[in-house]
Amino acid sequence: MNIKELEELTNEGVDHLPLLERRAFLRAGLAITGLFMGGTILSLTSIRRAEAVTGPIPKNADYPYKPHYSMVMRQNLCIDCELCMDACVRTNNVPSYGWRTRILERTRHIGPKEQETIFMPILCNQCNEPPCVRVCPTVATYKDKTTGIVVMDNKKCIGCKTCMAACPYNARYYNEETRAIDKCNFCLDTRLSKGEKDPACVEACPADVRVFGDLNDPESEVYKLVHQPETTVWVLRPETGALPNVFYMNVVLDV
Predict the structure, then answer these.
(1) pLDDT tens for residues 97-132?
(2) What are the extents of the domains in the chain?
(3) Most exposed among 34, 72, 127, 243, judged by the fewest C-beta atoms under 10 Å?
(4) d(CA 19, CA 170)
């Protein structure tokens, strides 16, 4: 999905905003593809300076929730096969007009006759300070007390779309069948609560782009990836103060 396609979507939760503002909102979501492409929305930072964008990073695995679920996106491994999206649709009964995870793309010129396409997997960032939770008038969206995952209670949702407009990541949609907002919840109800280790998108990825686990476990892969001293790790739209639990990084590829 590119910028033009993203702008043309009609069920984005911000369709009631002025067109220019909506475009700015969507472009901000895509500008996250990296400071290395000249963007200004995304702040790249090493783990030494990560507190500026994610809040204090505990040194002894003392995160607020137990387990404190997180996902690391090894962005440059993504091949845009969309198997993660297909698995999500099947597992969570996502309608054709909705989405819980997407892959954005951007092409840039790297030479006079060369260009490269960069893929950016996105989903709900399961924020520590979620704007969607703050604005919901019926408390239909909230953080799970055990895991910290941001979840939806369809029975309480009145479909006002306030949470959709507040989400910095455009990560929600209105489900016409349930008449309620829907979003990614790391497959909490469809997989994690049934004893499965990973969300559907993680299990389906053939390129090992997505790494899921508990940030409160120093032995988990997500903890080790986020806490590597010399690794460049970043989050999306850090200026919002949402404090995401989805991290991005690039890995060094053997050539």
Answers:
(1) 999 999 999 888 887 888 888 999 999 999 999 999
(2) 3-239
(3) 243
(4) 15
Residue 184 · residue 213 · CB < 8 Å: no
CB 143 within 8 A of CB 149: yes
**For residue 234, what are the β-bridge partners?**
44, 248
Based on the number of CB atoms within 10 Å of its own CB, is 166 exposed (0-12), middle (13-18) or buried (19 or more)? buried
Residue corresponding to tokens 């690391």 = 72
What's the pLDDT tens digit per position in 45-75? Answer: 333 344 544 455 555 557 889 999 999 999 9
Question: Which amino acid, residue 164?
Answer: M
The pTM score is 0.77
| Helix boundaries (H) for the chain | 3-8, 19-31, 51-54, 83-92, 131-135, 162-166, 200-204, 221-226
* 75 Cβ contact partners less than 8 Å away, ≥ 6 residues apart: 118, 119, 120, 121, 209, 248, 249, 250
**Cα–Cα distance measured from residue 197 to residue 205, given in angstroms and rounded to the nearest whole number:** 14
Cis amide prior to 18 (ω within 30 degrees):
no
In the chain, beta strands by DSSP E: 44-46, 69-74, 101-109, 115-123, 141-143, 150-152, 172-175, 180-183, 210-214, 232-234, 246-249
